[in-house]
Design goal:
Elements (H helix, E strand, L loop, with lengths): L24 E4 L4 E4 L1 H56 L4 E5 L18 H10 L2 H14 L3 E5 L16 E4 L2 E4 L3 E4 H13 L6 H9 L1 H9 L1
Parallel strand pairs: 3-4
Antiparallel strand pairs: 1-2, 5-6, 6-7
Helix pairs in contact: 1-3, 5-6
Length: 226
């Protein structure tokens, strides 16, 4: 069987129907040929080329983003490990034998930010994604066990809801701030830390010492340990 092909060129004049505008295209019946004007064909080719370039760059960016994520995990692992090591060395130096740690990680609060929102939502999301609570607890446990320090996980729910000095209920007008009618305002994280310690051990501090610690934690701790 011999296959034969016939190629022909036709020149047809386009007529503009009443009420319609021609789009400069031609269709031949029997699905034998569909011809588009040169200008529209070039536009179609350019669009296809741009799509291919876009998906090529998209795949490249996905690959590069994957490398950035792996690098971020490595940086986080190294930072958490160094932080836990320094904490364990500090606790060992001060003669601490047991550490009570809450089952979740709270955001750090600066003294200047106690009357305002701590940080913006994007920053909180960044802190949340970087400081993985379970990873921090596990790494801290490992370093403390090497130093002979016992780490106990406790439930910290409601630990900042009452005054660490008098045990009365407190108000929380802002994040990171607790207000007691008798003692005034102080850092919620400090209050929660002492309440956790007090509920799980027999440690006690004098009222004036605890007030100074709650009001000026950095100054008092530096004066005590130097």
């Amino acid at each position: 069987m011999v296959a034969r092909f016939l190629q022909c060129f036709l020149r047809v004049g386009l007529l503009e129907p009443t009420g319609l505008k021609t789009r400069n295209w031609l269709g031949v019946d029997k699905k034998l040929l569909t011809s588009i004007s040169g200008r529209q064909l070039n536009m179609l080719k350019a669009m296809i080329r741009r799509r291919r370039e876009f998906f090529s760059k998209y795949k490249w960016y996905l690959k590069k983003a994957g490398r950035f994520k792996r690098k971020a995990r490595e940086v986080r692992k190294k930072a958490v490990n160094q932080m836990a090591k320094l904490i364990a060395e500090f606790l060992k130096e001060k003669g601490v034998s047991t550490v009570y740690i809450g089952d979740s990680v709270c955001y750090c609060v600066c003294r200047e930010d106690l009357v305002e929102e701590v940080v913006s939502k994007p920053t909180r999301e960044l802190l949340k994604s970087f400081f993985a609570p379970r990873q921090i607890i596990n790494v801290l446990k490992r370093h403390c066990e090497v130093k002979g320090i016992r780490v106990v996980e406790v439930d910290e729910r409601g630990s900042s809801s009452y005054c660490p000095i008098y045990g009365s209920k407190v108000e929380r007008p802002y994040r990171g701030l607790v207000v007691c009618e008798k003692c005034g305002s102080f850092n919620a994280d400090l209050a929660a830390s002492f309440n956790i310690l007090k509920s799980n051990s027999s440690v006690s501090l004098e009222e004036d010492v605890l007030k100074r610690l709650l009001d000026y934690p950095k100054t008092y701790i530096r004066h005590t340990y130097t």
